[in-house]
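LAB NOTEBOOK - FOLDING QUEUE
OPERATOR: T.R.
BATCH SIZE: 2
PURPOSE: Compare the predicted structure-token outputs for two unrelated chains run back to back under identical settings.
PRIORITY: normal
REVIEWER: second-year student, initials M.K.

ITEM 1
FIELD SEQUENCE / FIELD STRUCTURE:
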Amino acid sequence: MRDQIVRALQEALEDHVDTALSKLEAANLCESPIETAIAIVLLYNIRMSGLSCELVYQDNIDLYPKNIALIVPQYRFEGYRIDFAFILAGKMLFIECDGHDFHERTKEQAARDRKKDRSIQQAGIRILRFTGSEIYRDVTSCATQILDSFNTLPARAVTKDADNPAAGDAE
């Protein structure tokens, strides 16, 4: 009996991962394998906690009820692109997945990331950064840290129009 339950759970997990991966790949929602890994595991963990959760484009945020968790890849905020916004019930958390090729290889890249973080923090939004090594080593732990941090956030107003188009699109 136990083996049947384990097999059923493994099949359900494989179906979930295949579905999430298909959606991410079809829509080109993630820009790197580490972003894809975080999105899939975070989506899975949220759904396993009993909440409804969807991967959505920023322009579609207002179409979803406030009681559905939203993972929004490539979220635009004040001229920056954030790897993910995690939104639920008036709470929002930004998540950055820092692969070695685009983050902190040079002083300029590090300075750009710190400036981005300060802008986000000044707006009262918490941001979590994970290195590619952290994600490859233990993506489940990264997703758990995201959920734990999210659960301590105060509520705030969240709409699809967080961007300031005049600021341009910086990474």
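ITEM 2
FIELD SEQUENCE / FIELD STRUCTURE:
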Amino acid sequence: MDTADFEKTVEHSTGRDLHEFVGQWFRAVGHPVFTASWRWDEGKKAAVVHLEQPYAGALHHGFYTGNMTVAAWVKGVRTARTFAFHRKQETFELPLRARPQMVQVDPDHEWLKELDWEKNASEWKYEAAHAPYAVDRIRALQALLKQPSKQSPPSSQSNIGREQGSGATPL
């Protein structure tokens, strides 16, 4: 069975058009690369997340499309929403009751991707201590090591991940 046969078989059994999906994930070379940033909009009480694909390999329209989940944690409580994106740059608004301590794009790692986040040191520290997945805690620690600081980077003997009720396993 070749890719075209696979596409036809799955389309027939599901009733869904998979041409775009198969083109992105089976026929194109590469994978999505995203840059992300967020800001708090006090007036709207929303985390405003900006997602951009600087380049996307050999895709016919130059970027990946699909659904992306954005999650934010306010006082340890996760709020998430899945957004459809169809352009090279998208901005999503996630309504929240207060400014979040942590915001993540694709928090459950459903996408095979590269993601470059613009976050400050306090956001990376919170993520290193509270992110639900070890891969996110490691990424946060790596980001902290890259940031210029007068203090030494966190050691394995620090309190990261040891806060009561953090939900994180110590590194």
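REVIEWER COMMENT (ITEM 2): The two ends are 45 Å apart (CA to CA).
FOLLOW-UP: none requested
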